[in-house]
Amino acid sequence: MKKCANCNTKFSKRKLIRSAWLGYEKIECINCGAIYEHTLFNRILLSIVSITPILLPLIVTKYFDLQYSLLIFLLSVIAFVLFAIFIMGYLRFKKIK
Fold this sequence. Notes:
The protein contains 3 helices and 3 strands. It is mainly alpha-helical and about 100 residues long. Helix 2 packs antiparallel against helix 3.
């Protein structure tokens, strides 16, 4: 859900990303004041997405030189950021107020 269930006001991507990366803050609709929170699905999905760029360079260093490992690390971080923005469209929220 990317919009409020009450008034159909769309949530901005910036608000969704900020909420997810700052400890799963609650999201408040600016139009009607309804409050939404992240579901367990969001927490699991974002945890998997977050750990991938950390583990990938560790695995790659076993097979490549340090120079290539740094390059792969940078590429994985860029891919991570792009993928995280894509994932924001699949987040689910439940209304609590």
